[in-house]
Each structure stands twice: as C-alpha cells, then as structure tokens.
Write a structure and sequence with these properties.
This protein is an alpha+beta fold. It is built from 4 helices and 3 strands; from the N terminus they run ααααβββ.
C-alpha cells in the first residue's frame, strides 16, 4: 500500500481567503449594480425621446417629458433639472445627463460612481 507524503486540498486559510473574496465581490455587486441598472434605464429613456420634435420643443416641455418618463421607469431618486442640461444650437439640441452617486462600502470606504452621457437631436 502506498502512503502519500503530501496532503492535497485547500487549507482552512485558503478556503477562508476564497470565501472572503467571493463575499467582497458579491457585496460590491449588490451595492453598485442598482446604480448601473438605473443608468441603463435612463439611457433608454433618452433614446426614446421623439428625435424629430426635441429641437422644436421648449426646454420646460422637455424637462416635463423626462420627468414623466423617469417616474414611469421608477427613476424616482433623480431630480431631472439637477442632472440634465439642455443646450440649443443652430443645427440641433444637445441634451446632457451627468451625475454622481456615492455608495458606502464598509466603514469609511466609499465608492463614487460618475455617470455622463450626451445626446444630439436635430
């Protein structure tokens, strides 16, 4: 009968390190994931704006339209006038969305997420 001189498998320290890494990744996904989902939803709201009409609409009407679309898509944590800027140009209208989110990770460690996108309407 053969005896093994070396043990095989993970040590308790190795398992602990692996589980800790998985928990850290899972925690980041749970805390940061919703912000990215909100931004993707927001991008679909801007793409759904009537492209041919935005240039002729008054700014207040654009803001109201966005406000309604945000409400329908459950983007309630955002004030449209704070995160959206509208610039009129001769050839079209540029609508820019830009905002930051700060998410506490652990103790005094925070993650700052910056989102920005620009849309051109002619």
């Amino acid at each position: 009968m053969r005896t093994f001189t070396k043990q095989r498998g993970a040590s308790a320290l190795g398992v602990l390190f692996g589980v800790s890494a998985l928990v850290a990744v899972f925690t980041l996904l749970l805390k940061l994931g919703p912000h990215y989902i909100d931004f993707q939803t927001m991008k679909s709201v801007f793409k759904a704006l009537p492209a041919g009409q935005v240039h002729t609409m008054p700014k207040n009407e654009i803001y109201e339209s966005l406000k309604k679309r945000f409400k329908v898509n459950s983007l309630r944590d955002f004030d449209v006038k704070d995160i959206v800027t509208i610039e009129r140009q001769k050839t079209g209208t540029v609508v820019t969305v830009a905002y930051e989110r700060r998410e506490n990770i652990v103790a005094n460690v925070d993650a700052v997420l910056t989102f920005s996108e620009q849309y051109q309407f002619k």
